[in-house]
Amino acid sequence: MTAERRGVLQVAGAALLWSLGGIGIKAVAEPPLKIAAYRSATAAVVLFLLFRPKLGGRGPGFFAATACCAACLTTFVVATKWTTAANAVFLQYSGVVWVFLLAPLVVGEPRHARDALAIAVALGGMALFFGGPLEARAHAGDAVAVVSGVFYAGLVLLLRRERGASAEAAVTWGSVLAAAALAPIVLRDPGVGARSAAILVLLGTIQIAAAQALFVRGLEHVRAAQAALVSMLEPIANPLWVLLVLGEVPSVFAVVGGAVVLAAIAWRTLGAPAAAPAIGALD
After folding, report:
1. Where are the domains of the chain?
2. Could you read off the pLDDT of 165-211 as tens digits, one per residue?
C-alpha cells in the first residue's frame, strides 16, 4: 500500500469517527457551549497523553491552525444544537469548496479538474442525500454552520501546511483553547448527569481525539483538497449510526445520495493523480 492510500484510509477513518458527533451531541441534554467545553477538555487530555506536544518555537501557521481548531470544535456543536443535523453538516461541508479554492495560495497545491468535478458531484449527492433543499428555519444555526465551514477549511489547509509534530500540537492546543475559552461560561453551572458525562467522555476521546490523530497523520500524505473530499464520508455515515442506535431506516433519497458521494470519493481517490490536469494554479 502506498503512503498516499494509507493516508486516505486514515482520513476516512477520521471522518467515520467524526460522524458520531451528530447523534452524540443531540443525545446530551445540555447547552451547546457546555457540550463543546467538556468534549474539548476530554480531547485535550487524551491528545496530550498521545502527542505530548510543546508550545514553544511555533510559527504563525501553528497559532492560526490552533485558533481554527478551537473555533471549529465550538461552532459545530452550536450549529448542531441550533439547527437540524442535516443543515449543520451540509453547510459546514461547504468548507470543502474553500479548501479547493485556497489550496494553491495556502499550501502551494494546484487545483485539479478531477478535484473540482468530484467535489461538485459529492455536494450534489449530499443535497440529494438530505432530501432536497435545506430547511428554511433556525437561521442563526445555519449562519453558525456556514462560519464553521470556513473554520473547517482553514483547519484542513493549515494542518496540511504544518504537518507532523506541529499539526499534532495544533489540534491538541486547539482543544485546550476551546475548553479554556468556554470555561468561564461552564463554571456558572458545571454539573452534568451521569449519562451525559459518559457520552461527553466518549465524544472527546473517540469522536475528537482519536479522529484528530488519524486526520493529522493522514494529511502528511494526502493533498488538502483530496482530504476534504474524503472527509465528506462523515455526513454519509451519520444515518448508519442512527440506524444502528435508533433503528431509523434511511430514505431512498438518502441511499442514492450516499451512493453518489461514495462514488465521487472513490473515483477521485482511485484515479491516477498524475493524470489530472491542473487548472488555475497560483504557484
Report:
1. 3-109+136-223
2. 999 999 999 999 999 999 999 999 888 999 999 999 999 999 999 99
The answer to whether 194 and 29 have CB atoms below 8 angstroms apart is no
Q: What is the pLDDT of residues 82-128, one digit of tens each?
A: 876 666 777 777 888 899 999 999 999 988 888 889 888 888 887 77
- pLDDT tens track for 200-247: 999 999 999 999 999 999 999 999 989 988 998 887 787 777 677 766
